[in-house]
Structure formats: structure tokens, C-alpha cells
Amino acid sequence: MKFLTDTCFWLHSFELFTNKIIDIRLVFNDFQWGITSEIRRELINFENEGFLNYDNINIGSVSDDELLRFQKKHPTISHFDIADQTLIVAALREPCVILTDDGGLLMESQALQIKALFLPQFLLNLVKEGVVSKNTYYQCLRYWEKNKSYPKKQLKIWKAKFQIIN
Amino acid sequence: MNQVNFRLKEDEKNLLKIIAGLQGIPISQLAKQIVLKEIEPKRVDIAFRMLKEGRCGRKRAWQLSGLSYHEFMNEWSLRNAEEYIPDEVYEKSLDDALSLDLELFRKKS
Predict the structure, then answer these.
(1) What are phi and psi of B100, to 5 degrees?
(2) d(CA A66, nearest CA chain B) in Å
(3) What is the pTM of this model?
(4) Contacts (Cβ under 8 Å, ≥6 apart) of A165
(5) Hey, is the C-beta of A78 within 8 angstroms of any chain B C-beta?
(6) Do B59 and A6 touch (CB under 8 A)?
């Protein structure tokens, strides 16, 4: 299995990196993960200072025909931009987990029975598995609270889950 | 590139023709400039209104705003913005996250 990451996930990761909280790129060295060529195109447009090295990333492609076929089968995906549509198609054709920071994509993924996680939830798993330190996650929580990145209620829930991790 | 067509009265078209002629650009280019200039200051408000009304998610709102991601998130923070996501969606993804077996994703050596 592999992780499929979207544009918002990496832009948020870049924010955490520039705020000297965590360099998520290092975490991904051990895991199978990728993006689609449309996501790469978006990231090249929006991402700063060469945060990602595309030579070392698994980049999948989705043909126009394949996209059209999936749009007919799952018409709701047409509400998303092409980059996100290709990510959904890639996740529908092989077992993947989508990592995102966009609620719209998360909801659509769930509706299509694709597992999708927000960045803070993914990091929580990494803390549980000892890949990311508790101190780092605590700093992330403080950053999200300060910047009101997520609803207070959810931050409270994630904090409570975090606190019971041994 | 996409095309947008709209109807103008004769005198309106003549007015555009004169102004475009003075600027040395085609009428279509002038119309495009005027439309984009008009909506520019409204984009951020529209983006956050749509987000608040649950008509779009974070990414769509960011794209609509025309801001960089960093600027958008600053604006997000200032406006106390929130995405409309049902609690059960958060709960399901949190359950999925906590039950995820990372070993399945490890690179094969």
C-alpha cells in the first residue's frame, strides 16, 4: 500500500517546516508514497523553494480516457479540480490512503470508501508508532491552536488522543 | 484558454471600442482587464463566504481567493475560518488514522 498526498498536504507541511516544527519529508523516506502528475504540476506552481525533489517521488499518471471513465462512474468527482480528481482515480484503482488538508477531498474520499486522513491525524499515528516525537506533535498542536488551523473541538479531541499515547 | 461571450448595446460597444483604441488593445482584452480588476478585491471575501456556507472546501476557497497559501492561511486565522465538515467525517478519519498499520506502507528493501 502507499500514501497519496495532495497539494494542500504539502503546502501545510511546508508551513510547519518554515516554522521549524517538523520536516515531514524525512518521515516519508521509509514509506511508499506518491503524487500524480497533475498534483506535481500544481505543486510546481505553488510550492516554494524546491521543498520537494520530484526525481525521488513516485509520480502516477491518469490518462484522459481513464479520468472520463471514472467521472462517468462517480460523477461527484467532477466537482473537484483535475489534480484532485486524478488523486481520487489513483486511489480507486489501487489500495491507497490519501493524505490531505482539504475537507472537501476528505469527505469525497470517504464517500467513495477511500481512506483519507488529515495531516494532524496522520501525525498522530506517527507519534503512536514512535516515528514522530511527542514533543514535535505538541509543537504542532500549539501551532494549529495559535493559527486556528482546525476547529477547536477537533484540536481538543486530537490533543486528548495524543495525551493518552504512551 | 476559455471564451466568455456577452451582449452589448451598440453605444456600449462603441464606448469600449474608443477606450480600447486609445489603449491600443483589442476590445476583448480591455473587457477582460476590466472584469478581472473589478472582481480582484472581492475574491477573498467571496472565498471565505463560500467556505462558511459549506459551498467549498479549503483548497477551492484558497484558489478562489487568489492569495498564496501562506497569505490565505493568515487570512483564515484572522477570520476564524472553518471548513464545514460533519463530526462523523472527522471521527471516521481519526479512527482510520489510529488503526493504520504503518508496516503496510514501508518500502520493501
Answers:
(1) -70, 130
(2) 23
(3) 0.89
(4) A124, A127, A128, A134
(5) no
(6) yes
